[in-house]
Design brief:
With 360 residues, this protein is of the alpha+beta class. 33% of the residues lie in helices and 21% in strands. The chain is built from 12 helices and 18 strands. The protein has a 7-stranded mixed sheet with strand order 2-15-10-3-4-5-16. Strands 1-14-11 form a 3-stranded antiparallel sheet. A two-stranded antiparallel sheet has the order 6-9. β7 and β8 form a beta hairpin. α7 crosses α8 and α7 runs antiparallel to α10.
């Protein structure tokens, strides 16, 4: 149940086209994932944590995609595709009340860590973006023909995670070094494990689709309510996916804040519970599919300053044939991807999205 909490600065604002400074820091939620595992790995005996390796699902992206990939440039840093999946199966089916069949990648971030790893940027891809899906292989090895004007978040259910990686690589020209997927049912359990997350909204939100019913003000959300919060798109802004992205990004900042408040080193039991919950929710590429590999990767990112991390949305414009969908805006999108490929600073002009009033 939603519980009123002490007032804090608003974490839910500027969702109607203005650029929110807080969005620039929300790429750090993947660091949250790795940091919790790193603390867990360093704070207990190996025997206590070794059974958590079995929680993590691994996908051999290299085998699934083959050689049809962008070249890995020597100065391109590290690039990770992060998906929040909404499978509508198993535990997720209960969370969706059976309303929608099939799996979806509800949240997608391309996280770029420049060479030297002192800062990072995350590009959020709106799920309603129309893209060209390349020819891919599905889970049983069958070839699935490519298709044009496919909604981005449907690719996961149509062909699987490797095809999502291949699609992102084709649209961006950026080689993905790693893949991390977090299941929404596990996300719910994580929020419950840490005792809820406090958010502040500056307007009433009543969304019959997600089930979210909040009055303006500060609330502590449990796991189920947190899922409703990050899924909400109706009743805020123009009701599009773009407003939902703002809520998701802002919620991740609040989630990070709650994690930082936890006395993980002083409470091994709670740390183990969080790590167990988190690993059970993770699917990664095969190279990261162990606590050791995740911890090693987390250590390699210790030099990244969360305060300098930037999260932006892929520049999009409303599709001329279907105003309920968006397409990558040019030349902004091409400029953005080129900067990431060459490990250069992203020009301000490449961050402007016509669909949110940020340029033409």
């Amino acid at each position: 149940m939603t519980t009123p909490a002490t007032d804090t600065p608003s974490t839910s604002r500027r969702r109607r086209g203005q650029e929110a400074p807080r969005r620039r820091r929300t790429g750090r939620w993947i660091l949250l994932t790795l940091a919790v595992l790193l603390v867990a790995g360093a704070g207990a005996a190996y025997w206590l944590w070794s059974d958590l390796d079995g929680n993590i699902n691994g996908v051999d992206i290299n085998e699934a995609i083959g050689d049809d990939r962008p070249e890995k440039l020597p100065t391109s840093g590290q690039n990770i595709l992060i998906l929040g999946s909404d499978s509508r199966a198993g535990d997720n089916a209960e969370l969706n009340a059976g309303k929608i069949a099939g799996a979806r990648s509800d949240t997608a971030l391309v996280m770029h860590i420049p060479e030297g790893r002192t800062q990072a940027v995350a590009v959020s891809i709106p799920r309603d973006t129309l893209v060209t899906r390349p020819e891919c292989k599905d889970a049983d090895g069958s070839t699935v023909a490519g298709a044009e004007r496919v909604m981005f978040n449907s690719i996961y259910s149509q062909v699987g995670p490797a095809c999502v990686v291949k699609t992102v690589e084709k649209m961006s020209g950026v080689r993905m070094d790693h893949y991390v997927e977090i299941d929404f049912a596990g996300f719910k359990d994580l929020v419950d494990a840490i005792g809820g997350v406090e958010v502040t909204v500056d307007q009433d939100i009543h969304d019959k689709s997600s089930g979210l019913d909040l009055t303006a003000g500060t609330h502590r959300l449990d796991g189920t309510e947190s899922l409703q919060f990050v899924r909400t798109r109706h009743g805020i802004g123009d009701g599009s996916d773009l407003g939902r992205i703002g809520l998701q990004q802002e919620f991740m900042i609040a989630l990070l804040g709650e994690i930082k408040k936890q006395d993980l080193l002083g409470s091994p039991t709670k740390t183990y519970k969080i790590a167990d919950t988190l690993t059970a929710a993770l699917t990664t590429d095969s190279e990261l599919a162990s606590l050791t590999a995740l911890a090693d990767f987390g250590r390699s990112m210790n030099g990244v300053d969360p305060g300098s991390m930037e999260t932006i949305m892929l520049p999009v414009a409303y599709d001329k044939r279907d105003p309920n969908r968006v397409v990558a805006a040019e030349p902004q999108a091409s400029t953005l991807w080129k900067a990431i490929r060459s490990d250069q600073e992203i020009p301000e002009s490449a961050k402007k999205s016509p669909a949110t009033g940020g340029g033409s």
